[in-house]
Amino acid sequence: MTDKEQKNIKEIFSETEADIIRKSKYIESQVRSNKNHLNSASNMLDEKDILPQKAPQLDEIKNQKKQANTTEKKTSKNSIDVNIKEILFTRKLWLGLGLIGISSIVIYGGWQWRKLQQSLPEIADISSYSRDGTLTIKAADGKIIQQTGPATREKIKLEDIPTPLVQAFIAIEDRRFYEHKGVDYQGVLRAFVFNIIARDVVQGGSTITQQLARMVFLDMEQTIWRKLREAMLAWKMEKELSKEEILELYLNIVYLGSGAYGVTDAAWVYFSKPVSGLTLAEMATLAGLPPAPSQYSPLVNPEAAKNRRNIVLAEMQKAGLISDERAKTAIAKPMEVQPSAPKRLIVEAPYFGNYIQKELPKYVSPEVLARGGLTVETTLDRSWQEIGEKIIQEAVDIDGYRQRFDQAALVAIDSTTGEVKALVGGRDFAESEFNRAIQAQRQPGSTFKSFVYAAAVAAGFPPTDGYRDLPLTVDGYKPKNYGKRYAGWRSMIDSLAYSINVVAVQVLMDVGFEPVIKLAKDMGIKSEVKATYSMALGTWEVNLLELTNAYATFAAQGKYIPAHGIKRIINQNGEVIYEGNFKAKQVLDKGSAAIVTWMLENVVKYGSGANAYLYDRPVAGKTGTTEEARDLWFIGYIPQVATGIWLGNDDNKPTWGVSSTAAYNWQLFMREVVEDIPVKDFPKKPSFYDRKPTIEPKPVEPKWIRYGQIGPDGRDLNEKKNYRNY
Question: Which residue out of 206, 258, 446, 592 is catalytically annotated?
Answer without folding.
Answer: 446
